[in-house]
Amino acid sequence: MWERCVSGLVSGFEIGSLAGLLCEEPLFSYALKIKQLDFLPSSLSTAFSGNLIGCVKDGFRLGALSLPQRLVEPFYICQFQCSQEQLGKMYGVLAKRRGKILDENLIEGTTLFTQVIADIGNS
User: Fold this and answer.
1) 113: buried, middle or exposed (CB in 10 Å: 19+, 13-18, 0-12)?
2) For residue 17, how many other CB atoms are within 10 A of its CB?
3) Is 110 helix (H, G, I), strand (E, B) or coil?
4) Do the beta carbons of residue 88 and residue 41 sit within 8 Å?
5) Which pLDDT belongs to residue 16?
6) Is residue 40 exposed (0-12), middle (13-18) or buried (19+ Cβ within 10 Å)?
7) Cβ(56)–Cβ(39) under 8 Å?
8) In the prediction, which pLDDT does 47 show?
9) DSSP run (H or E) holding 8
């Protein structure tokens, strides 16, 4: 009987975690632990798998809503080059965009350009 339930359980979890709870964002780092599964042998019909999918999907979403919610913002890792005179202005633009400087180097062979690697938020 367990074999008949596995596909419904997996499908229900996949459908429930397909779109996020707050703004249809992708979900990750979630797991579903089933502690007990009770059903009547007379309920094992062809409609059982569909009912099981819906129950698992709704149960997953309700359980996830009971946890603290979080949104994950994508960040870009960018590489910039500018003259040393313009470096302060570039830092100002990065600060406005909530950028975080990861590395700063002079490009070898010249003193005119600086290479800056930064994280910048998508929004």
Assistant:
1) middle
2) 19
3) coil
4) no
5) 84
6) exposed
7) no
8) 62
9) helix 2-16
DSSP-assigned beta bridge partners for residue 120: 76
What pTM value is reported for the model? 0.53
Tens digit of each residue's pLDDT (9 = 90 or more) over 65-117? 888 887 777 788 888 888 878 888 888 988 888 888 888 887 777 756 677 77
pLDDT tens for each residue of 26-72: 777 788 787 887 766 665 565 666 788 888 888 888 888 888 887 77
What single string gives the DSSP state of each residue in 51-93? Answer: HHHHHHHHHHHHHHHTSPP-----EEEEEEEEEGGGHHHHHHH
Residue position matching structure tokens 């313009």: 86
Angle, vertex CA 104, rays to CA 102 and CA 108, nearest 5:
145
Residue pair 119/76 in contact by the 8 Å Cβ criterion = yes
Contacts of 79 (CB under 8 A, 6+ apart): 115, 116, 117
